[in-house]
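Narrative summary of target 7.
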Amino acid sequence: MQRIGQEEINAVARVIESKALFKGEETKHFQEEMQEKFDVKHVHLMSSGAGALTSALIAMGIGPGDEVIVPGYTYIASAMAVVAVGAIPVIAEIDESLTLCPIDVEKKITSRTKALLPVHIQGFPSNMDALCALAKKYNLYILEDACQADGGSYKGKRLGTIGDCGAYSFNQYKLITAGEGGALATNSDLFSERALIYHDSSAVSFFGQQLSGTVEPFCGTEFRTNEISAAIMREQLKKLDGILEDLRKNKKKIMDALKDDFKFAVSNDIEGDCSTVVPFQFDTVEDAIRFSEITGHGRPINTGKHVYSNWAAILEKRGAVHPAFDPFKMEANRDHIPDYSPDMCPKTLDILSRTVYVSFTANSTDAEIDAKIQSCKKAKAAMQQG
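Modeled conformation, tokenized:
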């Protein structure tokens, strides 16, 4: 959690005093405010980022018989959203930017591929120019997972608004938060209406009938949120750019001070990077481990279900309790089940093993940032001494 205080307390009190904890105006206003801030036509506030990912895939018409390419470095929810709609996740390598590798993506495109799912992990912008070019070449959709990149940008455009749909998360650990929550953004009227129907069990939604009549209602689910969360998110949205500004200031200070001593991961757009961490990259795994041990900062290889080799349910092809709902057992997918293995993306494992994240917050003081810089310099000296 980055910044939360009296403004959010007042917002919660406003909702409670109104006695309209559901089907009020807070959700409507948040969606309008995010649409304006992100310059996107449609926003649907939901209960989670995973719900937004799943709703987006449903909106795109993706299901059994289809493949969606996901990076080997992302939280398991990215792949599970694909499984949730009956499709097959195809796991691709990341590159030195720690995001989806366009070169490996193209190798893994088949006649069944329907979408690419780039993940702006840790707020690092994916190579959207290259991925959009591939999508155009092979007639694919792009669903941006911006769940760790609220407010970030790529060449001046907010992450999550570049592809066909984008998903955001507002859980406890994100840049802006209501404890839990998410949002779907799209410029497509069709995808917006389908997502509205799916996430709100046939689209009665918060404000009555919102359907245009061009999309026939279908059976959906419930990823709706509530007015208290929406009210908190309205205040959080106001703080987003300030949070990003201070994160970027702190990251730049660290990188400027250490650029002659260390190598950092390449960025597809350093100006648009959310700057939640500084990714140090080392030539060897041993050096990364040593630096991590001295400084106490972690390596992304050790972040559990953010690394594909720890996605037991995916690798072991257990897509659902009932076999009829399990994409790995569906007849439509029978001839294209991947041969998953823990070592199937060696480049991803190597890059993550040689990377160390030096973390901080938007609230870190100059003294705290200076202390991190000095800690890194001392680590470098210790490593040189052997």
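Residues 227-258 form the longest helix (32 residues).
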